[in-house]
Amino acid sequence: MPIDSKKWKSNTEANVILVALDICSFSENIKLKDMQYHRGNLFQAVKAVPGAHELVSECKIEMQFIGDELRFAFPSDIGDPAKTARDFVKSVFLNLEPVTMIRGVVLQCDLIWREFFECRFFDGPAAVMCSEWLDYAEDNEVLINKAFKISLETEMLPSNFEKCKCGLETGFVLPVNRPL
Prior knowledge:
Strand content: 25-35%
Oligomer: single chain
Radius of gyration: 16 Å
Distance between the termini: 36 Å
Order of helices and strands: EHHEEHEEHEHEE
Structural class: alpha+beta
Largest sheet: 8 strands, mixed
Number of strands: 8
Number of helices: 5
């Protein structure tokens, strides 16, 4: 699918909401069939998110898949970006089968969309920070940075989040209310 040049310019830094969802089950279930099952479950949970198809077809989201981690970038100039990203994440958690455990990170940040030959990928300090923060997230937990918390408050969304340490930075836990 071609990138909408108004939203996604290659090799240019843009302010986005970066969502990373990591399959925790891989560390415990390293058999190939288990990995494939959990990946499939995550992909089906994303496909079942209300409006997911439209977000992709209207270039309001870009995706990157890295092993057991699925990343999404929402440009900050779409309507209600914090609400869109928050609702997207909560829906994924609700759609997952209970056997698949994921953890997540949501960062309001600057990100670079790069192309290497025909391979597109997220780059810049935020892409690295995203991986680092995932190390601090527990199963069924989503950590957010202060900038995303402020975006939620700006959009008048509830913001009573528990604080947590993410390395030298302070993060917050986004409640996902996953049924177990």
